[in-house]
Amino acid sequence: MRGGRPGRPVVAVAAGVLVIAALFLIDASAPALFAAPLPTRAQDGLTLAISVLIESLPFVALGVLLSIVVQVWVPPGVIERWMPRRAWARRAVLSLLGMIVPVCECGNVPFARGLLIRGFTVPETLTFLIAAPIVNPIVILTTHQAFGSSDGILIARLLGGYAIANLIGWLYSRHPNPDALLTDRFRETCELVEGERGGRGRRSLAQFVVELRAVMPALIIGSALAGAVQVLIPRDALLAIGSNPALSIVAMMALAMVVAICSNVDSFFALSFASTFTPGSIVAFLLVGPLVDVKMLALMRTTFTTRTLAGLVVIVVLSAFAIGTVVNLVA
Questions:
Q1: Taking a C-beta distance cutoff of 8 angstroms, is the pair 47, 41 a contact?
Q2: How many CB atoms lie within 10 A of CB 150?
Q3: Fewer beta carbons below 10 Å: N end or C end of the chain?
Q4: What pLDDT digit, counting tens, does each position of 173-215 carry?
Q5: 35 φ, ψ to 5°?
Q6: pLDDT value for 112
Q7: How far apart are alpha carbons 286 and 263 in whole angstroms?
Q8: Is the dihedral of CA 172, 177, 178, 180 positive or negative?
């Protein structure tokens, strides 16, 4: 164990203290910025954090179980036998894997970790991880239920998510050392799993414990961040620019990153903004939220380096802005 790890709880406590201090500072210096008093906003933030955690937990558990199935119970070569040999074709197929593994983005992270441990490359796994929260039947059905075929929102979300995923897979396939995109801690987890001996039941239990220990702290931190930003950022400031074609896209992308709603239900949340925001901004919200919200980034940080995540955020945000702009022009 490395010497820096015991300091992580201290960092977490320090971050919490800073957030609380920031709340009081903002409340004291700009009391008119928020309509509700600080205690009410803090309670709302706590309620949201708990709701995000409760909503995400079943999908995380499902993702861990699916990850164990892939790693322990599926014989070597079964999945790989059905994969095309060309790298771009493999990524294209993995982009559609979410159609048969329809879990929320929270569950996709442990499942993607299982693919990495099994031997899939980092670009291939990233392609699945980015596409799966959007290219899956549950999200398609809920998006259609919310928006139907109006303004091309459903088609733009589906094709946009698929395109962004394959763009990310291609860009990171050009990296000279893709394994450098992974954290040292995840590489140690791979070695631990590979060294595990015993029957499938014992290996499954060991892997379940390893994955939960890795993912649960990140999920709790991500949920807490999602609640905190609701207290720190006045939503009225975002809604005030909803009618501007460009600024509305920026506002909805910012909102998507902080509210951290599961991709299975985020369409109904976005529907409440459809009367005041442009169609392109709604599409940008539906693309950015499942891919790089604060909860998803916290979960992905268990596997990928901060630099990798920064690159993902830039690619997703720029791509979503471009797609949203096109939708505004043609809608």
A1: no
A2: 11
A3: N
A4: 999 998 899 988 887 766 555 545 556 677 677 767 766 776 6
A5: -75, -35
A6: 84
A7: 8
A8: negative
Residue with tokens 């802005």: 321
Least confident residue range of 1-10, 127-136, 172-181, 289-298: 1-10
Q: Which of 122, 161, 171 is nearest to 291 (CA)?
A: 161
**Residues in the chain, overall count:** 331
Can you give the pLDDT at residue 271?
81
Q: What does DSSP assign to residue 304?
A: B
Alpha-carbon gap, residue 321 to 123, rounded angstroms: 23
- On the question of pLDDT at 247 being above 70, the answer is yes
Cα separation, 322 vs 134, whole angstroms = 18
Write down the H helix ranges in 97-136: 105-118, 122-131
Virtual CA dihedral for 150, 156, 159, 165, nearest 10 degrees?
-140
Beta-bridge partners for 182 = 304
Q: How far apart, in whole angstroms, are the C-alpha atoms of residue 301 and residue 303?
A: 5
Asked if pLDDT for residue 218 goes beyond 80, the answer is no
C-alpha–C-alpha distance, residues 27 and 34, integer Å: 8
φ/ψ of 120, rounded to 5, equals -70, 150
50 token code pair: 């708990």
Residue 328 has pLDDT above 60, yes or no: yes
Pull the structure tokens for residue 131.
């596409």
Per-residue pLDDT at 1: 37
What residues contact 172, with CB distance under 8 A and at least 6 apart? Answer: 122, 123, 126, 178, 181, 308, 311
Which backbone phi and psi does 182 adopt, to 5 degrees? Answer: -95, 150
Comparing C-alpha atoms, which of 173, 169, 157 is closest to residue 279?
157
Nearest to 170 by CA among 231, 92, 105: 92
In which element (H, E) is residue 255 found?
helix 245-259
Tokens of 186: 């995840």
